[in-house]
Design goal:
It is built from 19 helices and 18 strands. The chain is α/β, with parallel strands linked by helices. Strands 5-6-7-3-8-9 form a six-stranded mixed β-sheet, with helices on both faces.
Amino acid sequence: MISANNITLQYGKRVLFDDVNLKFTSGNCYGVIGANGAGKSTFLKILSGEVTPNSGKINVEPGKRMAVLKQNHFEFDEVSVLDTVMMGHKQLWAVKKEKDELYMKSDFSEEDGIKASKLEEKFAEMDGWNAESDAAALLSGLGIEDSEHGKLVKELNGSQKVRVLLAQALFGNPDILILDEPTNDLDIHTVSWLEDFLLNFKNTVIVVSHDRHFLDTVCTHIVDIDFQEINLFTGNYTFWYQSSQLALSQKNAANKKAEEKKKELQEFIARFSANASKSKQATSRRKLLDKINVEDIKPSSRKYPGIIFTQNREAGDQILNVEGLSKSLDGIELFSNLSFRVNKGDKITFISKNSLATTALFEILSGEIEADAGSFTFGQTITIATLPNENEKYFNVDLNLIDWLRQYSEEEKDEAYIRGFLGKMLFSGEEVFKKADVLSGGEKVRCMVSRMMLSGGNLLILDEPTNHLDLESITAFNNSLKDFPGTVLFTSHDHEFTQTIANRVIEIHSNGFLDKLMSYDEYIESEEVEQQRQKLYGNLVNA
């Protein structure tokens, strides 16, 4: 068990949270949520001892071992991949290192022999003889091939480094596991492996993630950081979101009687408990939800952006026709002879092992770069609105947000009109006079969404649209695209976002492509699709 007792943290006059008291117990997974800047990562650092609060203390049950997902991707550059993973169990690694150094002594004495014997005993007690095989199994599960295990970490690419550090945190069955955005840079198959690992993990997990599907799958509780408070709720993210929204609507319905409110909440809990039986964590989650008291459900004070995409003109029947597109980058072929026809109302997710491939395709369609071969044609009625993955070039200007957005409005330039689109993305009051070149990553994406709404396009092209956004913005974005009557071409690592929007999946590879009219879940669960993927990727399918 780990507990936070009377924790307060502030920087100058800004209070992140005040007088926090929480207990985290074994067998549960706690998802930490909150708006950007609320202090999610900072709270994890307090729990791990990396940050000292202004007052209060963290208590860890004596004898319990904590493991933390490292964020410094260069810390272990000069260490082998396998050793880096085993270093996650500090005590085991220290014993291994000490006994190995003893055996290397040229003047090995009787006293050294006695010491080595004691170290061997300790090593065996910690299951040290299986350490290398256990570390290798973790690496393989996370997609790091056997041939990579003996390399130095610096020889790996960024995505592989993230996986090695994740394996390090998971290694050795820690009693308390703290993970900050563990699904970043993981593909769908690796995320699924991690979900299964955590579902079978019997100790305490505390995790920050913007992946709603991941939070829904693994979490038994939600830790909500909001308005300088941290509150603990039973259930996964969707239960927290839907119950808090129901409680908020009840709060706003002042004429509703208390008995009616209580009955409505009880019925909601019963429905959600029944649905929980379909989840991977069916038994434990249902038991938890059945114990919830309606008084535990509180309205959220979160603000959700008003994302509404409207078409200035409805599209005709001719949307987009792509014929034989090919593109290489630095001598590496991203895709070749790619052909597809987009139908009216299609919402297509593009997936690839290489994210550069989907970005290159979208940049070609947006007119940013040229294809090496092939052609594409938009219908005459089509107007596109884009959200690129990299948006830095749009903000290298000395303009406040009103003037920044005004430059993209072809007809209406009135300040009140422009403010309306900024306000929908939660830029209000004096915030609209911020300079565009000093915005955070999340603020830039919100501005780019304002720009998209302003354009009134009937075909949206979105490259990783949820990057840098908080859960509230992701949820609003998700809902808006489900309701959008036009056509959407997008790529995203967010499982829930993709599953609830896409009606078609196109997977692209240098060897060819797959094009399936089905939902994302149907695609990844289809045995027929997997067989076709194997033929497409060959030996690269698990690379």
